[in-house]
Design brief:
By secondary structure, this protein is mainly alpha-helical. It contains 9 helices and no strands. It has 2 domains: 42 residues, no CATH class; 108 residues, AhpD-like, CATH 1.20.1290.10. It starts with 13 loop residues before the first helix and ends in a 6-residue tail after the last helix.
Length: 175
């Protein structure tokens, strides 16, 4: 039970109810994380729009983004987000063993080398932003990533840290 009163799907009205219906249609349920964000309808809408942006991203695919979220959450030790994203990846056909190996060593993530390089960069940035150097960004450019791709992927990882803090601070449990 969260420490703060979340908004259940039955209680949702207006734009919150619309967003909840979209979640239900997309994944069959309204995640507890959305119910937490619904405490502040404007922040729920911002979060929902961010999800929509990344779902339509022209170069960052959903598998890559799920790995970003899962592995950032390993670093913050957010069980909710680790399990949620691991479940998404497993529904996509990856085995628990493969995902467990990636959680222990992100270099084992079953991604193309170009995506793996960007994933490792994001993990480095969210773990210690001061450790990022110009050469790190240049290496990603040489692999064909644009500055927008690098920025967007890093923003996705940084947002995950913030989300993990909110979920853990208010003791939101797994769906």
């Amino acid at each position: 039970m969260p420490l703060i009163k979340t908004v259940s799907p039955e209680e949702a009205t207006g734009k919150t109810a619309e967003i909840f219906a979209t979640f239900k249609g997309m994944i069959g349920t309204v995640p507890q994380s959305a119910q937490l964000y619904a405490i502040s309808p404007t922040l729920l809408e911002l979060q929902f729009n961010s999800i929509g942006y990344f779902m339509k991203h022209p170069t960052l695919n959903m598998v890559f983004l799920a790995f970003v979220r899962m592995l950032v959450s390993v670093g913050t030790n957010c069980k909710y987000c680790i399990d949620f994203n691991k479940g998404m990846l497993m529904q996509g056909g990856l085995s628990a063993e493969v995902l467990d190996a990636a959680m222990k060593d992100p270099k084992k993530a079953p991604l193309p080398e170009k995506e793996k390089a960007l994933l490792l960069f994001v993990l480095k940035a969210v773990k210690n932003a001061h450790s990022v150097e110009a050469a790190d960004v240049e290496d990603l450019r040489k692999l064909g990533w644009s500055d927008q791709d690098i920025f967007d992927a890093t923003k996705h990882g940084a947002n995950m840290v913030a989300g993990d803090i909110m979920l853990d601070a208010f003791k939101v449990t797994n769906d």
